[in-house]
Amino acid sequence: MKRITTALLLALVLVCFLAPMAMASDAAAGVAASAAQMDYFGMAAMACGLGIGLAALGTGIGQGLGLAKAAEGVARNPGASGKITTTLIIGLAMIESLCIYALVVALILLFAKPFGF
After folding, report:
1. pLDDT at 44 (0 to 100)
2. What is the H or E stretch that residue 23 is in?
3. Three-state SS at 114
4. From the centroid of its chain, how far is CA 33?
């Protein structure tokens, strides 16, 4: 597990360092947009992808843990399943809203035009 995590982090760092060079070479090849604009939009796209990925990862782990504890609670006390289910559904909705907020922020970053462009 440690090797996979290390390999994924290394790949992410390489993409972050090599993407601006790729954007600059596209701008030098005759793309109509300026290099600064390409750098901004390239970095914004990478930030949006990374942000949504981390948000989905975090909310997925949170929902999995919540569901596991709810199932354990129902298994220990079947009489309280109604209250546990209600609380679980409200909690899962709150956790899911965090991922939706991250999606909204990512879309704003991706489609908003910065000053000067």
Report:
1. 82
2. helix 2-28
3. coil
4. 28
Please check whether residue 70 lies inside any domain of the structure: yes
In this predicted model, what pLDDT tens digit does every residue of 57-100 receive, in sequence order?
999 999 999 999 999 999 999 999 999 999 999 999 999 999 99
Cβ atoms within 10 Å, residue 104: 10
The CATH number of the domain where 64 resides is what? 1.20.20.10
The model carries a pTM of 0.62
Q: Do the beta carbons of residue 73 and residue 85 sit within 8 Å?
A: no
- Dihedral through CA 53, CA 54, CA 55, CA 59, nearest 10? 110
Establish if 117 belongs to a structural domain. Answer: no
Q: Is 97 exposed, middle or buried (0-12, 13-18, 19+ CB in 10 A)?
A: exposed
Which residue range forms the structural domain that includes residue 24?
2-111
Q: Does 24 fall in a domain?
A: yes
Amino acid identity, position 70: A
Residue 99 lies in a domain: yes
At residue 35's C-alpha, the angle toward residues 29 and 41, to 5°, is 110
Give the total number of structural domains in the chain: 1
